Amino acid sequence: MPASPSADGNPAWTKTETSALKRVVRDTDPNMEKQERWRTVSQKLATGKTKRECFNKYRELKEIRNKEKGEISKRQAKELADAKANEPGAEGVEVVADKLETVPAPVPAMVPKPEVDLRGKEAKVEKARPPQEEKKPDVEQKPEAEKKQEEEEVKVDKPQVVEPQAEVEVEVEVVKPEAVEKEEVKEEEKPKEEEVKEEEKPAAETPVVEPEPVAQEEEKTEKKAVVKTEEVVVADPPAAVDLPAEEDVDDSFDKDYPPSTDKLTLDTAKALRKLIFRDEKAMFNPAWSKQGFFYTKEEDLQYGLIQLEGGPCGVVAAVQAYVFRHMLFGEANELLSGDAAVISDAKENWKTPGKKEQKQAVCYAVAKMIWGSAVSKVGTGDKFGKVSKNRPAMVCIAPDDKAHLTKSKDFKHDGVTEKTQVVTCFNYEDCYQTVKDNLSTFMKKDGAGVILLCYSCILSREIEQVVKDMDSAEGIVPRMIGNHGYANQEFVNLLMTGAAVSNTFDGQKILGDDTGASDDAMTFGGIAQQGDIGFLTLFEAFGNLECGKNFKVPVCPIWVVCSESHYSCLFSPIAKHTVVDEKVRKMDIYYYDPLGEQDEEIKLTLDRDAEDIPEGGGEETDLTPPIDKVVRTKWGRVGVDWNGAEPIL
């Protein structure tokens, strides 16, 4: 469900968005121009929040943090100073952000200087008495018994934001009670002027004077403290920082707990169906509910999964792409992602995996897609870490045939949902192990693998966040499965990148206002960063949309392909084929369609020197294979040779 509006009428910030904001601000250059910096933060956050909302929320978080640590912001300091200036007797009070200094007004001659017990105990201020000598400092001697009974209190005017436990450093001068000469008074006046000048310096340069150590016995018998009321300097709190430290981020799942298992609740089951179908009474058809992740029996295609019926091709193709990721490039490269990732060419035996490696590949693919949905913030995709810094992974399983959700007119059984249990995993190892322990369920030919994976990714991303990921027209959230039973782009993007954004271009696009600050501006979410797997589509050949660099140039040369309302895969065992190099005049890539009932390998040769190459990407005749058109959206003007295989029209 969407977050309820806040007091200013804007959607309230969720915990997930708040954690994401802190990290995005921390990763953004603080030296940027202010407007540009918060525009960048808004774009990186990719939740539809404007730069003004981001700025206001971060300021609010910083003020809360400063209050907890005894610090005040510059804005609070100004407000505090203005308030103090309007109070009676507030002369001489100056408030500096992140540092508190108080310079009291001049003290009348008849008011004695308060005393303090050096043992650190607070005492009460004695009533004013006329001085014995007009020019001598007013120092009163008291009997030892009276001294023990009456303690003096030094009142320091300080804002409430300073914690009462904060250690206060007070400059103290110890003198003998028998003789206080005029010369000593003069000596005190000189440092007073120097100390007042010190106040005018930046807060970072203000010294804190430690009190002289005084032996306890001398304190009792010989010495009494004279405390200067001219200035009380509160010890500097830790310097305020613009960006929160990692350990300061408020995150409920910043701990590594053991996995726990719970039954899927009726409310969550209905919410899942409402999100997927826009109708909580709807349910999956058999093409979805009886589709697992199993391999073909064709000897030359042992790397290929099989799809039984049309419908869940988007899910099967995405899993197939990650299966290729494991089989071709192996475990040594699995933790690599982003621009710095470097992979080697495919393993020599990638075409002939054994049964064990087939199972490992499916286990890896399912676990990585679920974990990617859990640790992603706004499309950050498949980053790995020991502990999730955002939310735990929710692995859905159906270990037995017993339903725990009762069938009713509002909730129908589909053979899967009513039996589903949810395992909460706080680290990748537990996520992988949970999938491995239930691998037979995911890989059963007519099992519930497809639905369980979809539920897992949605719950790991959180239903509320999935709704926010998607572009909505007039508040209408698109359903994730369309009229004909096909997964839409949001669903495929969730499985591939961990975020259910609606588009395939890079980053965000804003219509109506290039800053996104206007209420009339519309923000459209795209792919936030490069991932392991890419995506190409026939719609780009027709000019209907574009795929950005993040999808066209993935870490691995593997692409999910959308063509004619169907999803399949293109891939290459050569790592450098992720990028287009026009110096390479000829290269081979492979095509695989889980629904195509392939009985042989399909290798496409791309040739830049071929004759009769069509001009443009989408202007060919209807007899041109759609896959050829898709290929040219990435590699440009190339000939495509199917090497004897029958082209797919």
Can you give a write-up of this model?
The protein has 649 residues and is α+β, with helices and mostly antiparallel strands. 31% of the residues lie in helices and 11% in strands. It contains 19 helices and 16 strands. It has helices at 15-27, 34-45, 51-69, 74-85, 144-149, 182-199, 216-221, 266-277, 286-289, 313-329, 355-375, 428-437, 439-443, 449-461, 463-469, 489-497, 538-541, 549-552, 626-635; strands at 93-96, 99-102, 172-175, 224-227, 232-233, 260-263, 393-397, 421-425, 508-511, 522-525, 534-537, 558-563, 566-571, 586-592, 602-607, 639-641. It has a 6-stranded mixed beta sheet. The protein has a 3-stranded antiparallel beta sheet with strand order 1-2-5. Strands 6-8-7 form a 3-stranded antiparallel beta sheet. A hairpin with a 2-residue loop joins strand 1 (93-96) and strand 2 (99-102). It starts with 14 loop residues before the first helix and ends in an 8-residue tail after the last strand. Residues 89-140, 147-253, 332-340 and 377-388 have low confidence and may be disordered.
